[in-house]
Amino acid sequence: MGSAISLRSDFGGDGLRILARQTKDADQARRLLAHASIYDGGSRADAARLGSVTVQIVRDWVVRSTRAVPMG
């Protein structure tokens, strides 16, 4: 089994759910809700079911988001 990927500390489940409600892009909303699930302690499998994707895709989303430069 691989090593854990650290989540960004400038986000949280509640904030990501708010962003998901505000977006008009359905794919972005699915990604945000999947991330929110993980931030709240859910598994990748839970997030994959929520996002209607595979666990590998969820992992890829998390890796990409941890490499993003925070705004502000």
Protein architecture, described:
It is a single chain. The chain is mainly alpha-helical and 72 residues long. It has one domain. Helix content is 62%, strand content 0%. It is built from four helices and no strands. Helix 1 (13-22) runs antiparallel to helix 2 (26-39), helix 2 (26-39) runs antiparallel to helix 3 (44-51) and helix 3 crosses helix 4. The longest helix is centred in the middle third of the chain and has 14 residues, at 26-39.
Element layout with pairings:
Elements: H1 13-22, H2 26-39, H3 44-51, H4 55-67
Fill in the keyword field for this structure.
4 helices, globular, mainly alpha
Can you give me a brief rundown of this structure?
The chain has four helices and no strands. It is mainly alpha-helical.
Poorly predicted regions are none
Q: Please report the distance between the alpha carbons of the first and last residues.
A: 35 Å
The strand count comes to: 0
Class by helix and strand content?
Answer: mainly alpha
The number of distinct structural domains comes to: 1
How do the SSEs run, as a string of H and E? HHHH
Indicate the radius of gyration in whole angstroms: 12 Å
- The number of distinct helices, counting runs of at least 4 residues, comes to 4
Mean pLDDT: 84
Could you tell me the strand content as a percent range? under 5%
Q: Strand count, sense and closure of the main sheet?
A: none
Global morphology: globular
